[in-house]
Amino acid sequence: MIPAGRRGTTTISARAVARIAQQAATEKGGAVGAVRGAATVRGRRADVSVRLALPWPGELGHRARAVQRHVASRTGELTGLTVRVTRLGVVRLRRSEDSAVASPPDEEGGAPRRWWSPRSSPAAVIALLGAVPTALLTADVVAVHAFGHAPAGWRSDVVDRLSATRADALPVTVGAIVAVVAGLWLLLLAGTPGLRSRYVVAGFPSRRTVAVDRSAVASLVRDRVLDVSGVDTVRVRVGRRRVRVRAVLAFGDRAAAREEARAAVLGAVDDCRLDRPLRCALRLRTARTWDPVPDENLVNAPAADAPAGAEHGRKETR
Prior knowledge:
Structural class: alpha/beta
Organism: Streptomyces violaceoruber
Protein name: DUF6286 domain-containing protein
Strand order of the largest sheet: 1-2-3
Keywords: Membrane, Transmembrane, Transmembrane helix
Shape: flat
CATH class of one domain: Alpha Beta
């Protein structure tokens, strides 16, 4: 019998580990749609990354963590490797009939109206304006008292100019005005939330909030209105409280198209589940070549120069 040390080893390829991780991602967490995975194997360790779609609405953070833990444990169990999920990417959200409803707000309070901006740029400017003079002054004072150097010329010049300047001088007045304006600006930034281009999604607890960008809402509304029969061009502008839609009708009944387009806009806004509902304003005008009653035979007729026996699909004019 061949000794155990000379029987060879079993090597699991990175592709096999990726396939196992893909299958594990579909077992728990309610992944919806195709799952793509990648893996890198180094000895007895494997780094796995998974891209998938999750159902919506649902607790995304909890669901993503559950998928990550399950993929790591299940892949390690089946392969015998030490698996680490380095990246879990949620590429899209899809509605599912069996998806869990979002958690209601906590008893402590609902989600905030808007996300607060970190104000990184104003904070960096103020910190820089305060740090540079303070550092120079500190370095000069340390040089004078610790090493016995003479005071810097700029510090003596500043002290002499300030001692000779009157309180009602023009530079003092201008500096005071600038200081007041800067102070009011900082108070305004501190008292306003910022991030006005993001809307908070309703149905999440106060400890975790989810927001969508205005461009995402505009894209969803535009796609819904373009699905209306006869609509050719759509322009959407999403403001703070209102969605303005301007559409061009190429053919069909104008009144029916208006009602269908309005219903599409309202449905798209409702599907966003925003914490603060948006008002909708729709303006529908007809194109210069508008046809109230389009010829169905002309719309659905196959091309005359198409080859015989080829499959023809209906093409709807947008």
